[in-house]
């Protein structure tokens, strides 16, 4: 894409207005949070089913350097974001990994997660767990290789989003058989991990399944995080203790569910190990917008939930900088603003958790009216009648805290 004379001026304008927005944190502060930046998000050129790319691709060393400058200390990648499919599992792979390892060290960035692409290449058109033994053998090798890349780069997590694990036409696949076959691939990854962890003297990776309800044009066998929790517990996995989930905020929202409820179920199962953070709309496409740009109140409550239940895994910025943002804008506006919104909401969640109004209301609700005949529904209702108004009051208070209104607001005389 060509450079025009107006570009430096427009960049200066963007930089000046970004600074005028204020509310940004220093790279040192940003690095204190367990926030990871995906290679694929930073390098996304803007293409989609109906849309041509609007940006140049960005090589990993450049992404890592820009993340370091912003204060994103963790980096995540698909195998094919950094290594072309035909170069995987060849000496070329080792060369590329050496270069990336150097870039990570030079910039003080850690690789925290690697994930395998089992959805884009034509070989996966009938899923990574289809009928043909050679497809499944290749899928197993690919997942084993993801684990090997993870150990080579010092990652802690491996994530698997299976893609089209399902069918286009009813009756073509035998569902239980396909699930068994997918389990074989995950089992191969865990076995490889245990062997490598031993030879490398490293802890094994934490393997996380990611669900996405609307893989285009397919009926899916594991469309939600709950489906994956059931799969982990199905008896098909040889190491269920090594496998958890990586819910994505938008994926749980997309199908019409409540992301917080999905997160809560994963927390209770002890399987919430990794979390893809972004935003979007219900019952729409996987638009992968920046965190809290659509649902800031829900995001505040997500962080209240995670803070109060001790989630300590990474927050992976799995979003797509919009097509209207330039290559310059990706690192000047898109990533820093996403990180800063996250940190601000994290802080506000802390404020909400310490808020005396919410605390007192919650205590009163938990205590109940007390001393009512436990067999008399009418009496229980009457005794608690005034207490339940606190639900709306808490909701009001949370919005106040989100908007800063609990500190008071001066009405501006706009001359109307
Ligand atoms: C999406 C998906 C992916 C996965 C990734 C990890 O929204 O398209 O979330 O970004 O997170 O493929 O396996
Ligand atoms: Mn994701
Ligand atoms: Mn998504």
Can you tell me about this structure?
By secondary structure, the protein is an alpha/beta fold. The protein folds into 2 domains: 26-343, TIM Barrel (Alpha-Beta Barrel); 356-407, no CATH class. The protein contains 16 helices and 10 strands. An 8-stranded parallel sheet has the order 8-6-4-3-2-1-10-9. It has a two-stranded antiparallel ribbon with strand order 5-7. α7 links the parallel β3 and β4 (157-160). The model has no long low-confidence stretch (mean pLDDT 96). The protein binds D-gluconic acid and manganese (II) ion (MN) (2 copies). The site of D-gluconic acid (GCO) has 10 residues, from loops. Residues 210, 248, 276, 318 line the site of one manganese (II) ion.
The tally of beta strands, per DSSP, is: 10
Number of domains: 2
The second-level CATH architecture of the largest domain is: Alpha-Beta Barrel
Compute the CA-based radius of gyration.
24 Å
The level-1 CATH class of the largest domain: Alpha Beta
Q: Record the strand order, biggest sheet.
A: 8-6-4-3-2-1-10-9
CATH superfamily of the largest domain: Divalent-metal-dependent TIM barrel enzymes
Secondary structural class: alpha/beta
Distance between the termini: 47 Å
Mean pLDDT: 96
Question: Ligands bound here?
Answer: D-gluconic acid, manganese (II) ion
Percent helix range: 40-55%
Sequence of secondary-structure elements: HHEHHEHHEHEEHEEHEHHEHEHHHH
Return residue spans where pLDDT drops below 50 for at least 5 consecutive residues: none
CATH topology of the largest domain: TIM Barrel
Summarize the biggest pleated sheet: 8 strands, parallel
- Gross morphology: globular
| Residue fraction in strands | 5-15%
């Amino acid at each position: 894409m060509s450079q025009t004379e107006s570009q430096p001026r427009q960049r200066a304008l963007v930089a000046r207005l970004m600074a005028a927005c204020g509310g940004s944190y220093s790279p040192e502060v940003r690095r204190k949070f367990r926030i990871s930046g995906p290679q694929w998000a930073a390098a996304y050129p803007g293409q989609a089913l109906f849309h041509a790319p609007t940006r140049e691709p960005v090589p990993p060393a450049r992404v890592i350097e820009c993340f370091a400058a912003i204060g994103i200390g963790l980096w995540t990648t698909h195998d094919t974001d950094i290594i072309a499919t035909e170069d995987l599992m060849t000496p070329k792979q080792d060369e590329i990994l050496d270069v990336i390892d150097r870039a990570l060290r030079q910039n003080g960035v850690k690789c925290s997660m690697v994930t395998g692409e089992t959805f884009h290449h034509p070989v996966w058109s009938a899923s990574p767990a289809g009928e043909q033994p050679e497809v499944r053998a290749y899928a197993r090798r690919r997942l084993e290789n993801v684990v090997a890349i993870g150990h080579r780069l010092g990652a802690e997590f491996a994530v698997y989003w299976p893609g089209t694990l399902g069918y286009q036409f009813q009756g073509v696949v035998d569902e239980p058989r396909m699930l068994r076959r997918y389990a074989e691939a995950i089992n191969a990854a865990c076995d490889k991990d245990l062997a490598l962890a031993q030879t490398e003297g490293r802890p094994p990776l934490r393997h996380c399944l990611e669900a996405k309800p609307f893989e285009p044009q397919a009926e899916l066998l594991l469309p939600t995080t709950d489906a994956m929790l059931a799969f982990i517990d199905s008896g098909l996995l040889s190491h269920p203790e090594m496998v958890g989930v990586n819910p994505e905020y938008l994926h749980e929202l997309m199908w019409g569910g409540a992301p917080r409820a999905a997160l809560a179920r994963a927390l209770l199962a002890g399987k919430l190990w990794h979390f893809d953070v972004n935003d979007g709309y219900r019952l729409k496409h996987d638009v992968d917008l920046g965190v809290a740009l659509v649902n800031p109140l829900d995001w505040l409550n997500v962080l209240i939930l995670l803070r109060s239940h001790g989630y300590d895994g990474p927050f992976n910025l799995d979003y797509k900088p919009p097509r209207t943002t330039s290559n310059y804008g990706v690192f000047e506006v898109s990533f820093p603003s996403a990180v800063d919104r996250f940190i601000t909401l994290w802080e506000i969640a802390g404020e909400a958790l310490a808020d005396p109004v919410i605390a007192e209301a919650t205590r009163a609700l938990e205590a109940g009216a007390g001393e009512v005949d436990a067999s008399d529904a009418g009496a229980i209702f009457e005794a608690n009648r005034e207490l339940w108004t606190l639900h709306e009051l808490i909701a009001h208070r949370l919005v106040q805290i989100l908007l800063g209104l609990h500190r008071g607001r001066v009405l501006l005389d706009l001359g109307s």
